């Protein structure tokens, strides 16, 4: 990319850049002067979450416990409407005071020599501005919107003024010397509470510090640093007070809750104790451990007694069986270990009589009356022993049945011990839990009372409110630099879009992109109307020099001929108005001034233009008359004009015929060209545009060189595409491009300047100041 060429494109529009700079930079300067500077005031506070946890009466530890740096609740509190509404009321933000310095800017002030007392609720205040001035008689209040003026008499007026939503009084400080304020003029802006709250929320920014845990940064943006500091200080004070009040409320609720729970637990504990008492009474239990020991011992005793009774039954049965089986003279056993003394004694007595009977037998016979009497007694005694032993056995059997019943009862009691122990254990556990909770609640209540007595906020101010006096809006350097860049960007953007959507031909590159293999023959400068004909042999004008360069370049395209016949140069273009007639005219004059015989023919029968350069009547006879009547001699229609050159003959187009295409394609025109070749060195044809009509294409093969005229800032690039198609189809042959109407002052991309080809003194005098010193590339 040729940056110099690109730069020259935009330098053409330098006045627009200068105008844009003046407008935008000037507007920025005025804006900086009339706009009050806005400053940012900041404060940093810390919420000590660890201290807060230590002062909590009841702490709940869960896996989802919020981290220490979670400050969403605190931020939500600070930015809540209810909290900020207290700030609005405390600082009376419904009123904003300004001191008028000059008409376009006011300075916000925090202290004024008067006090305003609203006569309506602050929520109902109108959103209006008043201008207030202190004078000798009192106050003058003006509404700038309605231009209505209110005069308040006296400095301590308590009367309501109709139309004003407030009373006004002089402040205590100003009463000492009111004259100090006579020259000052103030402005007060009234806002309802809702509007003041909205403005406060818009200017307040609350952010959590990501690097420091528990730290919140408060920022307030305002044109009054003092007011911002007051707002932030008030927020910190109210926040600290709110934290304490919230904690006090929490502690009060906690103590109330604890008292209620203590009362409820006391009732529940008494109820459980009553249940335990009834249970012990119903189950005949004094102490559960003793009860277990007693029941276990009783069961053991019952088992032992039952075992002894069964043993006696067995022994008694054996004894009874032995006695029954014993003979009359057989002694009975006495080792049965019966627990019946009477039975044992009877056995001893029976055995003693047996011994007595044996002694009698030793001395007498069995028929001895004494022996018989003794045996009879033994028989009676044995029967009594059996009866007694049977009675004893019956007694033992009765005891056995009674023991089994008692044993069943004792076993049932012993088996019920685990159940009773479990029930009693649950009662004791529940009672113990209630007692522990009761004691814990009493302890928590004491802690709550103590913590409530020494309650303090966990809020700490790390950095008091400080104002950064580097204005955040508008920033002069940034604003001026931005306006400067914007002032350049706007015309640059407009110019860029204009050039981007511009389809006209402005330089050789535009042509070479479409007609890459077609040479550029020259550039005809744009000249004034008065200079159109300044092309004599000795002329030093730009048009004369450009025409001479064109002749030189065309000569290189002319084919080398063995025969000494004239050369035919055809001038054409895409559409009308591109200056082909103008270029053909000057080319003919330039060649004729080189002592060459030249014939200039106006072949554009539809819109002839050559007659204007020779001041000839358009209806003068010419080519159309010859073509229409073959018997005529075309030489009769030639005209000479010695004002330019004695070697130049002109054949004008003549009257506009109704059928120009038919005339131009008959053999008369070709015959004319062949004859002219013999008489002239050059035949120059001014033809019709090839994109509008096909006249030129019908005889273009007669030309040795075709000069295709393209006009600077006029010819559309799409026309070049059509011309390129003609060239490819060889409908136009040996073509060269001539750029016409180049503006030497505004052209870019050619390397032009005021000096064209050669640096002539008279041209340099017209050189623009902004191009002086630029090195210009020759065409």
UniProtKB/TrEMBL annotation:
<protein>
    <submittedName>
        <fullName>Polysaccharide biosynthesis tyrosine autokinase</fullName>
        <ecNumber>2.7.10.2</ecNumber>
    </submittedName>
</protein>
<dbReference type="GO" id="GO:0005524">
    <property type="term" value="F:ATP binding"/>
</dbReference>
<dbReference type="InterPro" id="IPR027417">
    <property type="entry name" value="P-loop_NTPase"/>
</dbReference>
<keyword id="KW-1003">Cell membrane</keyword>
<feature type="domain" description="Polysaccharide chain length determinant N-terminal">
    <location>
        <begin position="13"/>
        <end position="91"/>
    </location>
</feature>
<feature type="transmembrane region" description="Helical">
    <location>
        <begin position="13"/>
        <end position="32"/>
    </location>
</feature>
<keyword id="KW-0808">Transferase</keyword>
<dbReference type="Pfam" id="PF02706">
    <property type="entry name" value="Wzz"/>
</dbReference>
<keyword id="KW-0547">Nucleotide-binding</keyword>
<dbReference type="InterPro" id="IPR003856">
    <property type="entry name" value="LPS_length_determ_N"/>
</dbReference>
<keyword id="KW-0472">Membrane</keyword>
<keyword id="KW-0812">Transmembrane</keyword>
<dbReference type="InterPro" id="IPR005702">
    <property type="entry name" value="Wzc-like_C"/>
</dbReference>
<dbReference type="GO" id="GO:0005886">
    <property type="term" value="C:plasma membrane"/>
</dbReference>
<keyword id="KW-0067">ATP-binding</keyword>
<dbReference type="InterPro" id="IPR050445">
    <property type="entry name" value="Bact_polysacc_biosynth/exp"/>
</dbReference>
<feature type="transmembrane region" description="Helical">
    <location>
        <begin position="478"/>
        <end position="501"/>
    </location>
</feature>
<keyword id="KW-1133">Transmembrane helix</keyword>
<dbReference type="GO" id="GO:0004715">
    <property type="term" value="F:non-membrane spanning protein tyrosine kinase activity"/>
</dbReference>
């Amino acid at each position: 990319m040729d940056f110099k060429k690109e730069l020259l494109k935009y330098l053409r529009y330098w006045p627009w850049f200068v105008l844009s700079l003046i407008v935008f930079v000037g507007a920025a300067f005025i804006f900086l002067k009339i706009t009050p500077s806005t400053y940012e005031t900041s404060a940093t506070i810390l919420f000590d979450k660890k201290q807060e946890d230590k002062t909590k009466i009841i702490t709940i530890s869960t896996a989802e416990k919020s981290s220490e740096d979670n400050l969403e609740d605190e931020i939500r509190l600070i930015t809540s409407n209810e909290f900020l509404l207290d700030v609005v009321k405390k600082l009376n933000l419904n009123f904003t005071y300004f001191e008028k310095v000059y008409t376009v800017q006011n300075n916000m002030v925090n202290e004024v020599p008067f006090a305003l007392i609203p006569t309506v609720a602050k929520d109902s205040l109108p959103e209006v501005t008043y201008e207030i001035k202190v004078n000798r008689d009192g106050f003058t209040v003006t509404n700038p919107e309605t231009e209505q003026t209110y005069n308040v008499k006296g400095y301590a007026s308590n009367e309501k003024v109709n139309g004003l939503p407030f009373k006004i009084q002089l402040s205590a400080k100003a009463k000492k010397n009111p004259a100090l304020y006579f020259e000052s003029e103030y402005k007060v802006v009234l806002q309802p509470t809702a509007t003041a709250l909205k403005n406060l929320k818009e200017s307040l920014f609350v952010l959590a510090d990501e690097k420091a845990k528990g730290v919140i940064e408060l920022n307030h943006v305002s044109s009054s640093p003092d007011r911002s500091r007051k707002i932030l200080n008030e927020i910190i004070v109210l926040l600290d007070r709110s934290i304490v009040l919230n904690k006090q409320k929490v502690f009060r609720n906690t103590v109330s809750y604890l008292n209620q729970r203590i009362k409820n637990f006391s009732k529940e504990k008494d109820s459980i104790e009553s249940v335990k008492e009834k249970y012990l009474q119903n189950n005949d239990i004094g102490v559960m451990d003793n009860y277990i020991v007693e029941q276990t011992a009783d069961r053991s005793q019952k088992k032992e007694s039952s075992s002894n009774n069964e043993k006696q039954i067995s022994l008694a049965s054996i004894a009874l069986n032995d006695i029954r089986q014993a003979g009359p003279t057989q002694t009975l056993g006495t080792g049965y270990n019966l627990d019946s003394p009477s039975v044992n004694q009877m056995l001893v007595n029976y055995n003693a009589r047996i011994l007595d009977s044996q002694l009698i037998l030793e001395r007498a016979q069995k028929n001895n009356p004494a022996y018989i009497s003794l045996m009879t007694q033994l028989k009676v005694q044995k029967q009594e022993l059996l009866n007694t032993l049977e009675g004893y056995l019956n007694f033992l059997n009765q005891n056995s049945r009674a023991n089994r019943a008692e044993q069943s009862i004792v076993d049932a009691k012993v088996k019920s011990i685990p159940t009773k122990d479990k029930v009693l254990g649950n009662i004791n556990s529940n009672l113990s839990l209630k007692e522990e909770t009761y004691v814990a609640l009493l302890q928590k209540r004491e802690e709550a009372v103590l913590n409530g007595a020494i309650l303090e906020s966990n809020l700490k101010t790390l950095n008091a409110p400080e104002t950064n006096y580097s204005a955040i809006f508008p920033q002069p350097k940034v604003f001026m630099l931005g306006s400067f860049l914007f002032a350049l960007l706007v015309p640059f953007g407009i110019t860029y879009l204009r050039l981007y959507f511009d389809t006209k031909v402005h330089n050789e590159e535009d042509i070479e992109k479409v007609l890459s293999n077609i040479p550029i023959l020259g550039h005809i400068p744009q000249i004034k109307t008065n200079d159109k004909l300044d092309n004599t042999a000795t002329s030093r004008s730009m048009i004369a020099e450009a025409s001479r360069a064109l002749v030189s370049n065309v000569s290189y395209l002319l084919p080398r001929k063995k025969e000494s016949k004239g050369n035919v140069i055809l001038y054409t273009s895409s559409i009308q108005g591109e200056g082909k007639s103008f270029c053909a005219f000057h080319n003919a004059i330039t060649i004729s001034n080189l002592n060459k015989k030249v014939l200039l023919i106006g072949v554009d029968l539809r819109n002839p233009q050559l007659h204007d350069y020779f001041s000839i009547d358009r209806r003068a006879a010419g080519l159309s008359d010859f073509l229409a009547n073959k018997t005529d001699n075309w030489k009769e229609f030639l005209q000479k004009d010695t004002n330019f050159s004695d070697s130049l003959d002109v054949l004008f187009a003549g009257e506009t015929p109704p059928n120009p295409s038919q005339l131009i394609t008959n053999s008369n025109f070709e015959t004319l060209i062949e004859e002219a070749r013999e008489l002239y060195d050059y035949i120059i044809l001014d033809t019709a545009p090839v994109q509008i009509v096909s006249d030129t294409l019908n005889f273009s093969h007669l030309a040795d060189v075709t000069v295709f005229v393209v006009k600077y800032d006029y010819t559309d690039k799409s026309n070049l595409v059509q011309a390129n198609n003609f060239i490819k189809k060889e409908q136009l042959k040996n073509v060269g491009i001539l750029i016409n109407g180049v503006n030497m002052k505004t052209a870019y991309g050619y390397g032009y300047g005021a000096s064209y080809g050669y640096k002539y003194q008279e041209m340099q005098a017209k050189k623009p100041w902004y191009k002086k010193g630029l090195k210009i590339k020759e065409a």
